[in-house]
Amino acid sequence: MDRLDNTVRPYAWGSPTAIPQLLGVEPTGEPQAEMWMGAHPGAPSRTDRGTLVEVIDAGPEQELGPAAVARFGPRLPFLLKILAAGAPLSLQVHPDLAQAKEGYADEERRGIPVDAPHRNYKDANHKPELICALTEFDGLCGFRDPLQAAALLDDLGVDSLKPYVDLLHAHPEDAALREVLTAILTADPDEMSRTVTEAAAACDRLGGAYAPYADIAHHYPGDPGVIAAMLLNHVRLQPGEALYLGAGVPHAYLDGLGVEIMANSDNVLRCGLTPKHVDVPELLRIVRFVPSDPGVLRPEASPDGEEVYETPIDEFRLSRYVLPEAGAAHDLTRPTPQILLCTAGSVRAGEHDLAPGESVFVPAGEKAEVSGTGTLFRATVIA
């Protein structure tokens, strides 16, 4: 079992205080957006045996287990993070596995450098993800019913939004949503900037259900993503609740602290709320234009105290233990690799005492006994 030393990424949207507060350290004054736990080559966790990439490369079957290597290859198939949003992240979607393989092969064939700003596919993997709230957590997830979106836009009283309102009343629903998102993202930039400015003023004035969009517009003035965001469901998670984001589902995180787990991929197609590249044709190929409920997940408890967040994929499995005072030890030994993360209290994992924000990597099959008083998240795979 290896204690992990993890990198904190200082993206501009990060909260300056949330991760330091969790770790019990003084803020630096700079944004601290994500703490990465895993073997992603961009910021692998460090151990006494080297980086987690080096550890796994030296003995994939020993560290990951034969079943996981046979299923996912000689790499850790998930990335675990603590995410602290102090401002909205970009509005985005992720491809499914077939789309990722096709898109990556196409860009490789065309010789687009993997670090090029206009590159869409950094790898050939999909990127399903799950966010579990540690504090109240605001986000956008999936399309609203088009008629609800039409009413939301119409009540702003902005004349230049009327064509979108009319389109959202058309049938079928998927075609209406596709046409409106296309129109928003391909509108004249100056005209759209004026529309967003007028809509933002109306959101400020109306408050209530419009408050999240007023805040988004404050961070991204004139961005067409502000109007696109109003097509999506707004959701506020309470601590312990989660969202699963599958392929093609447009989403954005707005504010809050959470534990995030995802397949080990960098594939993101952006819809707005960003200065980065937006490839509209490719985006429209990936987005699933299906109205849906956000689908808030609550963990399902098992007799041994494990609370599992059920998802339809195998690259990751996230669960948590809320350990009572003086409770019995739990044996978490599995034939697959694990990362154990403490988020509250004090937890002992093997020979390691974990405070909030501290974590360990457990190789496949290694004895993993935990005890203490606090909250422990467990990330592993299904193989």
What does this structure look like?
This protein is α+β, with helices and mostly antiparallel strands. α6 packs antiparallel against α7 (162-168). Helix content is 28%, strand content 28%. The strands form four sheets. Strands 1, 14, 15, 16, 17, 18, 19, 20 and 21 form a nine-stranded antiparallel beta sheet that branches. Strands 2, 3, 6, 8, 9, 10, 11 and 12 form an eight-stranded antiparallel beta sheet that branches. The chain has helices at 18-23, 52-58, 60-64, 66-72, 97-109, 146-154, 162-168, 173-186, 189-206, 211-219, 225-229, 280-286; strands at residues 2-3, 7-9, 34-38, 46-47, 50-51, 78-85, 91-93, 129-133, 137-143, 232-237, 242-245, 251-263, 269-272, 300-301, 307-309, 317-323, 330-331, 338-349, 352-354, 359-362, 369-380. The longest helix is centred in the middle third of the chain and has 18 residues, at 189-206.
